[in-house]
Amino acid sequence: MEEQIRAETPAGAGTEQRRTVSSRIGPLAQRYGILIALAMLCIVLSVVSENFLTSRNIINVLRQTSINGILAIGMTFVILTRGIDLSVGSVVALVGVVSASFATTSAAGFIPGAPYMPLIPILVGLITGTAMGAVSGVVVARFSVPAFVATLGMLSAARGLTLIYSGGRPVPALTDGYRWIGTGDIAGIPVPIILFGLVFAVAHFVLTRTRFGRHVYAVGGNPHAAKVSGLPVRRIRFSVYAISGALAGIAGMILAARTGSALPQAGVAYELDAIAAVVIGGTSLAGGIGRVTGTVIGALLIGVMNNGLDLLGVESYYQQVIKGGLIVAAVMLDRSRKTED
After folding, report:
1. Cys-Cys with 218: which of 9, 135, 226, 238 at CB 3.0–4.6 Å?
2. If you ran DSSP here, which 8-state letter would residue 262 be given?
3. pLDDT for 192-229, tens place per residue?
4. pTM passes above 0.85
5. Cα(12)–Cα(203) distance, rounded to whole angstroms?
6. For residue 111, which phi and psi values (nearest 5 degrees)?
């Protein structure tokens, strides 16, 4: 009987069935793999640490993730156009000290008339961050300087401007109104988490429901074809760097408000965490492919991992090694998908 069944079964049937299953699982793994990884990490940490699933710790994770998440959303716009922004960490520090100088009650005083009502420092911070991003955008889009070089130069320049503006000193004694950005809450939800959610909602809408979002994907997918089609490629490239700078400004103000003092040394290596969140979230470094939803999940994965390692008492040195391994693994996965395509 077994011989008869084997005789009636086509030789390649088993192989064909495995290919069919693989073809169905592959797209699902690509689309939901990062979410599954986050869920599995949360399950493991909840088992090994009784403090992980407490409401206080979850809120703490989300609050800590908000800064990197906002930076990563801005980075997503840039990477979708085949660019990179290495300057966001320095822009975080620059915006922090500039905006905080309008909200300090310190006797030393940085700006005549300070402190001002909270709206003034916030507007100054947004303008400063957007301006830094715009400068990078002009260099990349108008003068065709590689994004890596342009933003690496801005990384150094913005850090230098931060030290010059602050005199190398922190900006202390911030007003309660300004600090509310980083320490306040609305209906029990911390303001940084709310801002993170709003930035995500707006970015998701822009990338999925607007003409500008479609143009961002088109420029990243094939810049030459986009230009031939009449799209304003230079303007789009300029815009994504301005967006990245503006969101770095928001992150910088949240960080200064949380700590109660704007530090000129703040934001060091923040660009690496932002890029890691974007790449881990599935956005291709080759441009044109990616979702801001994946970026948010990538940022949460990094935040949960950092929190879990802290709860387990793992030293920060090892955390850097693990994070670097995640970035390399994500890039290798991205390259393997392109090879298969």
Report:
1. 226
2. B
3. 999 999 999 999 999 999 999 999 999 999 999 999 99
4. yes
5. 47
6. -125, 130
